[in-house]
Amino acid sequence: MENAPVSEPVSPAAVFAALAEIVYRPSSDGEVYEAICAAAILLVPGCDHASVMIRNGGDYVTVAASDEIARQVDDLERVVGEGPCLDAIEDEAAQLDPDLCTAPQWPGLAARVVAATPVRGAMGFRLRVDGRKVGALNLFTDTAGVFTDTAAEQAAILAAFAAVTASAVIGGGEVSTLRAGLVSNREIGKAVGLLMALHRISDDDAFDLLRRTSQQMNVKIAELARRVIDQHHGA
């Protein structure tokens, strides 16, 4: 039996570029949320399913999901009343349980998820708009132990994009508001390209260099991207 072909990993820069294309063209709010779920599977190592959950009054509503498994896990969280997605909305920190089968943080939920779905690990990242807790980006994996700190870092970047989306939708704005908020994405792409040419590195390495430098300088990655571009034009 021949081995199945191994797909090439998709670079963060390519994922953000594809996400921007969806955002910049005429799109409904639902399409943009769906695009974020699709991007999560491409961008976050080990992510097999993703959803976006928004708080609507006293209820939590799944407004987008990559597939029925993600929706099913969200449903189970609502039934049990506990889990990384619900806690991510209420708590300050991101929620991570890399192995639902071994000493899970939410045993009631874990037992039902493991019995009913292939999911074996979960992460939840709060979406905050104007200081308000409005929802969560929820990520699930079918392989225990693959949600590491690296995966969480990638997910946190994507959660920032999801928060901009939530801001446009919940604030009653049009998707054009979201487009304006993501203009920096083009600048990040340009900065990645410049760093690739300058240091002769891959797009993955260039994006990682930009991210790490922004953390070290305590500067937002979009602002750092603008500085890189301005320095290049100045030179």
TrEMBL record:
<dbReference type="InterPro" id="IPR011006">
    <property type="entry name" value="CheY-like_superfamily"/>
</dbReference>
<keyword id="KW-0805">Transcription regulation</keyword>
<keyword id="KW-0418">Kinase</keyword>
<keyword id="KW-0804">Transcription</keyword>
<dbReference type="InterPro" id="IPR036388">
    <property type="entry name" value="WH-like_DNA-bd_sf"/>
</dbReference>
<keyword id="KW-0808">Transferase</keyword>
<feature type="domain" description="ANTAR">
    <location>
        <begin position="168"/>
        <end position="229"/>
    </location>
</feature>
<dbReference type="Pfam" id="PF13185">
    <property type="entry name" value="GAF_2"/>
</dbReference>
<protein>
    <submittedName>
        <fullName>GAF and ANTAR domain-containing protein</fullName>
    </submittedName>
</protein>
<dbReference type="InterPro" id="IPR003018">
    <property type="entry name" value="GAF"/>
</dbReference>
<dbReference type="InterPro" id="IPR029016">
    <property type="entry name" value="GAF-like_dom_sf"/>
</dbReference>
<dbReference type="InterPro" id="IPR005561">
    <property type="entry name" value="ANTAR"/>
</dbReference>
<dbReference type="Pfam" id="PF03861">
    <property type="entry name" value="ANTAR"/>
</dbReference>
<dbReference type="InterPro" id="IPR012074">
    <property type="entry name" value="GAF_ANTAR"/>
</dbReference>
